[in-house]
Every structure is written in structure tokens, then in C-alpha cells.
Amino acid sequence: MIKVERLLINYKTLEMFKRFKEYGHQELSMLEDLQNKIVENNSESPFYGIYYGNNLIARMSLYEINKKYDYYFEPQQDYLTLWKLEVLPDYQGRGYGKRLVEFAKEFRLPIKTNPRINSHGFWEKMGFQKAHYEMERDLGENPLIWLPEGVQEKEIIK
Ligand SMILES: CC(C)(COP(=O)(O)OP(=O)(O)OC[C@H]1O[C@@H](n2cnc3c(N)ncnc32)[C@H](O)[C@@H]1OP(=O)(O)O)[C@@H](O)C(=O)NCCC(=O)NCCS
């Protein structure tokens, strides 16, 4: 069984994040917070990842959205947003991406993600579906959703 870990905010983790393509504001602001001691060393980040030996080879960010802001699901409820799912090139196609998505599903909450171009085949395999596009909600995004048992996509009332 591939182990998924909650990633801690420390210099070592932030250094490993540099290997990922989707490195940007989120990582830099975590680094600044650490430098300015706004967060403590080893406090929990929103990232989960998989190590191969000492190397972080796959990661995703996962965040729980409060029910109040749920415009996607029926009944209205807390849900997870998943982003920055990425497996380093040398380790792709070996089940690590799938393992991270399965880990997210284990919370038994609906999940929303915005897929990158070319990853639709993967998400389809993971059981995600396109949310009906609603301009005011989704703007330029093309969100995909995963529904646990007993949950439906919210109907759009025009
Ligand atoms: C997309 C990504 C997260 C998938 O993770 P991964 O570890 O490589 O994928 P897995 O090995 O867990 O694959 C799980 C299943 O999805 C399938 N799959 C993976 N990527 C796929 C894709 N782009 N299209 C269709 N199916 C795909 C696998 O064949 C596998 O199927 P199986 O369970 O029947 O064997 C990862 O490849 C990645 O980070 N890619 C970065 C670049 C990118 O976004 N590429 C998009 C594809 S070009």
C-alpha cells in the first residue's frame, strides 16, 4: 500500500516543492510565512504527498470548503477542493496519482477540481464528471466533480 502523508511546512518540504511544475504563489507564500515566523516550522500544510525514499514524488493540495459556500452539491454540504495534483515525470503511470485521489475520496465528501489540459482521461478514470457549466459560478473554469454515495449535483435554476 502506498503511503500518503500530510506534508509539513518546513524548508525541506519547500525545497522539494521546487521540483513540481505547478510551483507558484501558494508555495512562495508558505516560504514567506515560514521566514517571517507567521507559521511555525513543521506546522501542517494543505498538501498531502507520497515519498519514494527521501524524495517527494507526488503531491496534491486539499482544502475543505464550508457548506455555506457550496454551490455545487445537493444536499448542500462541506466539500473538498483538490488542486496541484502532480506526479513527477519519472514516476507517472505507476498508480501514485490514483492513490492520492483515492485518499481524498476516503473523506467521504464530494470533491471539486479544475483539471489541467490533457488530464481528462485520468479524471474520467477516477470517476469524476464535468459539472454543468454555470457562467456566474464557474467563469472560465471547467470544474470536475466527484460525488460520494447519496450526493447529487446541484440543479442549476436559471
Ligand atoms: C495526470 C497525473 C496526475 C496522473 O497520475 P499518475 O500517477 O501518472 O497516474 P496513475 O498511474 O495513478 O494512473 C491511474 C489510471 O489513470 C490512467 N491515466 C493516467 N494518466 C492518464 C491520462 N492522461 N489519460 C488517460 N488515462 C490516464 C492510467 O492508465 C491508470 O489506469 P489504470 O488504473 O486502468 O491502470 C500525472 O500523470 C501527472 O501529474 N501528470 C503531469 C502532467 C499532466 O497533467 N499530464 C496530463 C496527461 S498528458
UniProtKB/TrEMBL annotation:
Name of the protein in question: Uncharacterized N-acetyltransferase D8M04_10230
Ranges for the N-acetyltransferase domain?
7-149
The domain of life for this entry's organism is Bacteria
Question: Which keywords are on file for this protein?
Answer: Acyltransferase, Transferase
Q: Name one GO molecular function term.
A: acyltransferase activity, transferring groups other than amino-acyl groups
Xref: HAMAP family? Acetyltransf_YlbP
- Answer whether the UniProt record assigns the keyword Acyltransferase to this protein: yes
Q: Which PROSITE patterns match?
A: GNAT (PS51186)
List the source organism.
Oceanobacillus piezotolerans
EC class of this enzyme?
Answer: transferase
Q: What is its EC number?
A: 2.3.1.-
What the entry lists under NCBIfam families is as follows: PRK13688.1
